[in-house]
Inverse folding.
């Protein structure tokens, strides 16, 4: 689905329209920087392309291979420095719907660079069978999924939910999203 905004007089209308041929396209804007994210969402050889507008060192498109289908994109300023971060979420086709997140920093509104997302450990992934959800919530990046107990079917998890709350931190050679808190409910 894609959203179309129409301005009619002083009225802003938002329409949701289906994408053609299963592709993905979304435009996001924050703090004078905008991104157009697009993907053909092909089953094999899929890519996502990010076209930025407003970066000081130029707006060079980035195209990256992704194994999954692009399902959502968000923009936010997690560290409050005035330079937004971009998040793109993907989901594998099939009943497991395994998810993955990709993130980029605008580095002082100059250039777009990858953000490393720290993966959970083996113990933290116990009971994992997909159905990931990602979101930016109150200044944090969040990943959560249903927890499956032994014998649960893929459609009926009984172990509650596990949620990872990440904080954006400067790393040695770039930005890192580190797990700050793990909650089960």
């Amino acid at each position: 689905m894609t959203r179309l905004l129409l301005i009619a007089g002083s009225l802003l209308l938002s329409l949701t329209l289906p994408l053609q041929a299963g592709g993905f396209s979304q435009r996001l804007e924050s703090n004078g920087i905008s991104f157009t994210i697009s993907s053909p969402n092909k089953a094999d050889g899929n890519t996502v392309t990010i076209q930025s507008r407003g970066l000081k060192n130029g707006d060079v498109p980035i195209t990256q291979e992704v194994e999954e289908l692009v399902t959502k994109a968000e923009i936010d300023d997690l560290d409050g420095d005035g330079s937004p971060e971009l998040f793109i979420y993907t989901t594998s086709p099939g009943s497991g719907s395994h998810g993955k997140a990709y993130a980029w920093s605008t580095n002082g509104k100059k250039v777009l660079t990858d953000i490393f997302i720290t993966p959970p450990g083996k113990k933290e992934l116990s009971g994992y069978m997909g159905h990931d959800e990602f979101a930016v919530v109150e200044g944090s990046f969040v990943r959560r999924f249903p927890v499956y107990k032994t014998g649960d079917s893929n459609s009926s998890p009984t172990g509650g939910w596990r949620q990872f709350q990440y904080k954006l931190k400067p790393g040695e050679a770039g930005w890192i999203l580190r797990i700050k808190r793990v909650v089960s409910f």
The chain has one domain: 8-184.
